């Protein structure tokens, strides 16, 4: 928690409370420089701000300053929960290119929300879907699904409950390669992932192919899952996804423009 703010990947405790996920280094992974790099954040910022230039305001989060003035904390958000203790909202994380939730602790300087219509909330979700990672997922049973705002998150084996430690959701693929090396490949560089048992075959947009095994960012028993938003996603949902599938049940993931 930093300055009263908790960022989460959309997971929730079994009692319904938001699951706190801090932005930490990849726990047990060696500190090795990846050969693959993220696109500059400024590239996406230009197009994202251009998309928001049209009149489509969603919810706006304010905080009252000690001088009594309202200060904007977040625009184009969607309120999830508000009470005397906390305020939770969804927004688009431009660096990660996915939807995330933020929880603010109510203190001496209160937070308030200017809410929008359901139509405005749907419009902002449509904008989020344009700028997140789009994939076509093929499961091992042959079923396919188109997703927007795709990312990876981590659960206990079986996908139930919450982890015993904070493990951040990610939009990259940590891969253990030959010779004991590690390559953390950003989603923006991936064209296709083929799952062949424990082995992954990753085609990159520079024409190269990497093979290796998925390397979990935690030493605890965990299940990596691919999550995202489908066309049936409800803006009022407290979650930032409506599709979740364990990597062990995936045959192929194709990244789309």
Features:
single chain; 257 residues; mainly beta; ten-stranded antiparallel beta sheet; six-stranded antiparallel beta sheet; 2 helices; 10% helix; disordered N terminus
Topology:
Blueprint: E1 5-8, H1 41-52, E2 59-64, E3 70-82, E4 86-93, E5 98-105, E6 111-114, H2 118-131, E7 134-139, E8 144-155, E9 172-177, E10 181-186, E11 190-196, E12 199-204, E13 209-214, E14 223-229, E15 243-246, E16 250-256
Antiparallel strand pairs: 1-5, 2-3, 2-6, 3-4, 4-5, 7-8, 7-16, 8-14, 9-10, 9-13, 11-12, 11-16, 12-13, 14-15
Describe this structure in words.
The protein has one domain (5-256). The model is unreliable at 1-8, 10-39 and 41-54 (pLDDT under 50). The protein is mainly beta. Helix content is 10%, strand content 43%. It is built from 2 helices and 16 strands. The strands form 2 sheets. The chain has a 10-stranded antiparallel beta sheet with strand order 10-9-13-12-11-16-7-8-14-15, with helices on one face. Strands 1-5-4-3-2-6 form a 6-stranded antiparallel beta sheet. The radius of gyration is 19 Å and the shape is elongated.
Provide a concise account of the structure shown:
With 257 residues, the chain is mainly beta. It is 10% helix and 43% strand. The chain has a ten-stranded antiparallel sheet, covered by helices on one side.
Question: Kindly, what is the distance between the CA atoms of the first and last residues, rounded to a whole number of angstroms?
Answer: 34 Å
Report strand order across the widest sheet: 10-9-13-12-11-16-7-8-14-15
What does the largest sheet look like? 10 strands, antiparallel
- Cα shape: elongated
Number of domains: 1
Beta percentage is: 35-45%
Give me the count of strands. Answer: 16
> Number of helical runs?
2
Helix percent reads: 10-25%
**What's the mean pLDDT score?**
82
> Structural class from helices and strands?
mainly beta
Could you list the spans in which at least 5 consecutive residues all have pLDDT below 50? 1-8, 10-39, 41-54
What is the gyration radius calculated from CA atoms? 19 Å
């Amino acid at each position: 928690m930093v300055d009263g703010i908790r960022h989460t990947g959309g997971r929730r405790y079994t009692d319904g409370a938001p699951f706190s996920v801090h932005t930490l280094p990849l726990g047990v992974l060696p500190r090795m420089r990846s050969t693959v790099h993220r696109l500059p954040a400024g590239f996406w910022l230009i197009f994202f701000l251009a998309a928001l230039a049209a009149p489509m305001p969603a919810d706006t989060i304010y905080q009252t300053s000690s001088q009594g003035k309202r200060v904007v904390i977040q625009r184009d958000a969607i309120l999830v929960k508000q009470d005397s203790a906390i305020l939770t909202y969804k927004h688009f994380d431009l660096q990660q290119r996915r939807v995330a939730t933020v929880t603010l602790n109510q203190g001496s300087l209160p937070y308030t929300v200017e809410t929008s219509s359901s139509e405005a909330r749907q419009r902002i979700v449509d904008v989020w879907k344009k700028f997140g990672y789009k994939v076509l997922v093929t499961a091992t049973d042959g079923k396919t699904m188109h997703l927007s705002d795709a990312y990876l998150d981590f659960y206990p084996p079986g996908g139930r409950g919450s982890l015993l430690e904070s493990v951040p959701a990610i939009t990259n693929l940590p891969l253990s390669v030959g010779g004991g090396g590690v390559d953390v490949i950003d989603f923006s560089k991936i064209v296709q992932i083929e799952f062949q048992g424990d082995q992954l075959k990753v085609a990159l947009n520079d024409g190269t192919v990497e093979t290796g095994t998925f390397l979990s960012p935690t030493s605890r028993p965990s299940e990596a899952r691919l999550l995202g938003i489908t066309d049936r996603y409800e803006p009022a949902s407290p979650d930032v996804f409506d599709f979740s599938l364990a990597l062990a049940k995936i045959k192929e993931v194709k990244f789309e423009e």
